[in-house]
Amino acid sequence: MFVNSNGYNLGVREDEIVVNDVGLPPWAKKPEDFVRINRMALESEFVSCQLHQWIDLIFGYKQRGPEAVRALNVFHYLTYEGSVNLDSITDPVLREIPEAYFIRDPHTFLLTKDFIKAMEAQIQNFGQTPSQLLIEPHPPRSSAMHLCFLPQSPLMFKDQMQQDVIMVLKFPSNSPVTHVAANTLPHLTIPAVVTVTCSRLFAVNRWHNTVGLRGAPGYSLDQAHHLPIEMDPLIANNSGVNKRQITDLVDQSIQINAHCFVVTADNRYILICGFWDKSFRVYSTETGKLTQIVFGHWDVVTCLARSESYIGGDCYIVSGSRDATLLLWYWSGRHHIIGDNPNSSDYPAPRAVLTGHDHEVVCVSVCAELGLVISGAKEGPCLVHTITGDLLRALEGPENCLFPRLISVSSEGHCIIYYERGRFSNFSINGKLLAQMEINDSTRAILLSSDGQNLVTGGDNGVVEVWQACDFKQLYIYPGCDAGIRAMDLSHDQRTLITGMASGSIVAFNIDFNRWHYEHQNRY
C-alpha cells in the first residue's frame, strides 16, 4: 500500500516533485520496516498496559457524562448515538416538505431542511461515536510489565537463572537423529518428542512439562525433579525395537534427512517417503505397523511437509517428488488416514497438483493459515503456490543462490530459504527480497519462532544460533555440541529447543525469545 509498484501516473505536487511511493519517516528505511516497527509499537507491553484506558474512552464509562468531561473526551452532540433520528433524515417525504410547512415557535423545535442537510454533512464528514458498551472501568490486560513484580514470575526473563543446556539424551543406536517433532501440548494423550534416526528407528519420548519457572502454566512441584524428556522405554530397554523399526525398503539413492518424515500433531502416526515404489506410507507409532500406502507420483517421493493442524487434527500434507511435481493431500484427524473417506483409503486423491519446477523437489513448506505452499527444487527458484494449485510467483534468489535446501515460512508471510554453501534469504510473500546473509556452516535445520520474529539454525558445526528474522541480525550463539545438528523443533510453549544430533543423541536447550525482544533489551 505504500509502493507504486504498477507505476501509475499519480500527478505532480506544487513543488514539481512527481507523486510516487509514499514518503516514509527517517526511522523506516523501507515500507516493510515502517509496518514492522509500527506493529511492534502497537503490540508492545507499554501499549498493552494502556489498552484498557483506550477502551474506557471509546466504548466505556469515559465516553459520556462527567467522566468524559474530565477526560477531555467530549465531541459534537450530533456524533453521539441517539442524538440523530436517521429515519427522519433519510425519509424522502420529509425532504420534499416545503419550508413553510415546518412549525416553529418558542416551545417547539422541528427539523428544517437546512438543518437536515447540516446533520447529513456532519455525519458524512466527522462520523459518529460508537455505542457505549461499558459503564464501569475496563480491567487492565495482564502483561509482562505487571507480572514482573511477582516473585519468580515466568515472564521476568531470568535468563541468568537458567542454563543453556537442560539435558542430553543418548539413544543406544549411534544412527544420526534426522527428524525431531515436539508435539508437547498438555491435552494430548501422549505429549512427546518423537525422534527418527537415519536407520528409520523412531522413538516416542514422553514429555514432562517441568521447564517453566515456578508459577508458569503446567508447572507442578511433584514433577520438579524430573527432566523434561523421558526416553521411550521400548528403546531404552531394547525390549520392543520391532515396534519402532521401519523395515520397508527405501530407494537406495535417497538421502535420509528431516524432509523424509512427518509426525501427526497427536504423535500417533509417522508419514515416511523415499520408497522405491514411488509411494509414501503411514505408520502407527504405537505398533510400528503400516496403516496406509499412498500413491500419486510418477517417481520417488523425496520430501514431505505438514501444515499446522485444525481442531480435530486435520491438516494438509504436501509430498514432493523426483517427477518435479508436488501433491497436496488432506489428513483426516478423525479417521487417521490421507483422504476424507475411510472406504476409499487405498486410493486417496490429492487435493491439488502443483507444477512449475524443472528438477527434483527437495524441500517444501505449507501454511494452512495463508493457504500457501512454498517449494524448492534441486536447482532453480523456489515457487509459491496456493493450496488450490495455482502458481503465484517464483522467488528468485540473489546471485549464487541457486540450490535451495531448507524452507521455513511464518504465518506472518515471511519465507526464509537456506541455499547451499551457507546462504540465507528472507522473502516477503509478495516475492520481495528483504534480507540475505552468508554463514560458515553447512546448515541442516532451520525453524522460525511462532511469531515469525526469530530464526533458529543448526548444522554440521554443532552450534545453535538465533537470528532476528527480518534482517538476520545475530542474537545469540549457544555452546557448541560435540556433533553436528541434523534436526530441531520447539516445544509448544516456545521455551525448549530440542535438537537431533549426528551422534544419535538429542539435546534440549532452554530458549526464551523474550530476552531478545526489543522491549526486554530496553526496559528490563
TrEMBL record:
GO terms for cellular component: cytosol; membrane. One of its GO terms (molecular function) is protein kinase binding. It holds the Pfam family Beach. Gene3D superfamilies: BEACH domain (1.10.1540.10), YVTN repeat-like/Quinoprotein amine dehydrogenase (2.130.10.10). One of its GO terms (biological process) is intracellular protein localization. Keywords: WD repeat. InterPro entries: BEACH_dom, BEACH_dom_sf, BEACH_Domain, NBCH_WD40, WD40/YVTN_repeat-like_dom_sf, WD40_repeat_dom_sf, WD40_rpt. SUPFAM superfamilies: BEACH domain (SSF81837), WD40 repeat-like (SSF50978). Residues 1-141 form the BEACH domain. It comes from the Eukaryota. This is Neurobeachin. It comes from Panthera leo (Lion).
